[in-house]
Structures are given as structure tokens and as C-alpha cells.
Amino acid sequence: MKRRSLLKLGTMSAALAAAGRVPFAHADTGPIKVGILHSLSGTMAISETSLKDTALMTIADINKNGGVMGRQIQPVVVDPASNWPLFAEKARQLLTQDKVACVFGCWTSVSRKSVLPVFEELNGLLYYPVQYEGEEMSRNVFYTGAAPNQQAIPAVEYLISAEGGGAKRFFLLGTDYVYPRTTNKILRAFLHSKGVQDADIQEVYTPFGHSDYQTIVANIKTFAQGGKTAVVSTINGDSNVPFYKELGNQGLKATDVPVVAFSVGEEELRGIDTKPLVGHLAAWNYFMSVKGPANTKFKDQFANWVETQNLPGGAKRVTNDPMEATWVGIHMWKQAVEKAKSTDVDKVRMAMIGQTVAAPSGFTLTMDGNHHLHKPVMIGEIRADGQFNVVWKTTKAIRAQPWSPFIAGNEGKPDVVSSTVLPDFLRRSRVA
Questions:
Q1: Between the chain's N and C termini, which has fewer beta carbons within 10 Å?
Q2: How far does the chain reach from its first CA to its final CA, in angstroms?
Q3: How many CB atoms lie within 10 A of CB 116?
């Protein structure tokens, strides 16, 4: 190579490095490092700790069965402690210091949005396992949780139906951050399309860690005097415990005012007396109570992991939707690495499109060109034992709509990530 070419290459490399776009070299021998980025302390630990446990269980199982391309996976676990700026710091540490091949992590949208600029700057890959508000489609994120059309919209449509109780008024209660506010913006527009007026919609938000729901539950009871009412809860984290306890304290039964939650599952109900809550609802893409060999294997695997690792909670530990999404994401990443024959981010990104996994839900999930999974939708009623009876579900996995048609200005936005080449079978399924 001529000296001038070498100088050009050196100048280009320096410029790319300054811009943070030089991909970090991952060793092609020895263990493959992956990051686990979940809050193990603070207000979100109640939900995120189990995702860390699931990730470690899944990685250990893959390692036991030969690893990835014959290499073991080495998890690097960090605790961002429910501190949103700390999420970004820990993400940068994982990518630049630990040089992980990818990261599995985050729960809240504020944590995901905190780390997103880091992943886009450094060309890292984040596997995000929780339902969210949509309005995002990054080439550096694979979203294994639900978009609004795979959870929020079907749940409210169910509440409006005769089967779901025929609700006419809606109390939208959430934690004060981007996911509840954007989801409720979508739901308000959806309700308008169904003829529900603003006078029959009330929105209330509380901060993270809020614990006094006495006045709010009393206000729900007052609001419900105006007609058949349902509550849509986007409360996140440990605030769910005092909210559901207050529902029980004030005797707000599901037969009077049903509550459907988007961030409450088996794990959040584990520390609550659920007998007064029987019949209240949650919308997810998986429930622990789903019957089938894939789910039996998943539950047995987690129970065995809890026992052998002597994890807190012991036999009372449960599985839930974001745990399944974590498991699916890790297996899809493994398959994509093996297809690409590399941990290189750009090669893995392309290999991810069209990957399928037979999930514990009993459905085969497919990664679309929009970086979201095709997922089933399920609505479950709380049982006295803290589990859910599935009362409604789709017959097939539904394609995600990252850009909601109920948000003005979304018309014409791209529905696949830039430069993605869709497999033929996905091209045919985009109407789903």
C-alpha cells in the first residue's frame, strides 16, 4: 500500500475513532462476553432481578450444551441500580471496557432511552425484553417485548367488548415517565376512534416509588359512579405492591371496576395477598399458567436453577413474560451468531432478521425486519394463588407496529430498519 493510502487510512480511522464509530474488536477465540444490564437494587429491582436470573440460567444452559460456535458465553453482570443516567454509564463500560458482543437489559423506557445514544454511537447491540410504547426503531436494538398493538390496544379493545365487561369510562393510571404517557396518548386516540369522549377518560400519574394510593383509589371509585369503568394501569416497579394492596383495602373488586395492568405479572404479585384481587386483569404475551411442553420445560428449568443457585425466594419463585422474552432474545442471538459465523455486530444484525424460536408461550416467534418480534397477545385474570387464567388470546403471533397509527405524523414512516433485507417469508407476512 502506498504511503499516501496509509495516511488516508490512518486519518479515516482517527476520525471514526473520534466519532465513536469504530467497532470494538471481539476476540475470535475464547469465551464470548455478553452484558447483563438490569437493576438489582432500587425501585425496579422487584421486576428486573428475575431477568438477570433468567439470563444467567439461559447462558449456563447454552454453555452446558456446547456454547456458541464451540465457545462459552461469559456474562458480565452490572447493577445500574434503577438510576437512569447510571444505565448509560454502565452500558458504555460494557461496550468499551468489557468489550461485550451484545447486551441483554433494561426494563423501563427511560432506561432504554438513556442507553440508546451509547449503543448507536458505539454500534453496540441491545436486546430489550419488555413491553414498551413504540415510537422507536433503532438498528442497534432488538425489541423482544411487545409494541402497543401487541398488548395495550388489544387489552382495551377487550375491556370495551361485551366479553370484557363493556366499559364506557377509562381511568388511565401510570408511573410518570415516557412509557405510560406515550401509551396513554395512543390509547386516548384509540378510545376516541371508538366513540369514547374526553369526559370519560381520566389520566393520573405518580412518581417512581410512590406508595400512597389511598386517595387515587378513592377517586377511581368516584369516577366509576359515572358509568361502567375500567382502570388501565401502567404503574411500574415496586409501586404496584401498595396500589394492589389499596385496591384490596377499599374493596374495589374486578366485578365493579376491573383493572388491566401492562407491567404486573406473576413476579410483582408474589408478595401480595391476591385473594381480594381475583378477576383483575393483565395483558401479556406469555403467562406462567400456559399449558404445553415448552412451558413445562421452561418452568422446570427455572425452578431447578433457583434451587441449585440457592436464589432468594426458593420454591415461591415464578416465571413471567419479560423472563420469556429474555430467554427468547438470548437464543435468537445465539442462532444469529452461528448463522453469521461471527460476533461482529453488523453481521449478527443482518442474521437476526427472520430468526425463529419455539417459545414457552407455545407459539413460534419470528424476528421481523423492524427489529420487533411477531408475538401472540394474551389477557389473563388474577387467581387467588397469584397466577393467571388466560381468558382471551390471539390464534397467531401478531406483527408489531413500532409506529402507532394512532399517533399523528406516523403515516409513511419506514416499517423496516434501514438496509434490512427481508427473507421472502417475512415479505409475505408483513400484512399480518
A1: N
A2: 52
A3: 21
DSSP calls for 363-380: SEEEB-TTSBB-B--EEE
Q: How far apart are CA 279 and CA 166, in angstroms?
A: 15
**Are 235 and 207 within 8 A, CB to CB?**
no
Backbone phi and psi for residue 79, each to the nearest 5 degrees, phi listed first: -120, 105
| All CATH 3.40.50.2300 domain ranges in the chain, comma separated | 28-146+290-375+406-429, 150-284
| CA gap 377, 318 in Å, rounded | 20
CA distance 79 to 37: 7
For domain 28-146+290-375+406-429, the CATH architecture is 3-Layer(aba) Sandwich (3.40)
- Asked whether 21 and 123 are in contact (CB, 8 A), the reply is yes
Run means of pLDDT, 10 residues per run, the chain, 432 residues: 42 42 62 99 97 99 98 99 98 99 98 98 99 97 98 98 97 98 98 98 98 98 98 96 95 96 94 93 98 98 98 97 99 99 98 98 98 98 97 98 96 81 57 42
CA-nearest of 259, 80, 110 to 181 is: 110
Domain with residues 150-284, CATH architecture: 3-Layer(aba) Sandwich (3.40)
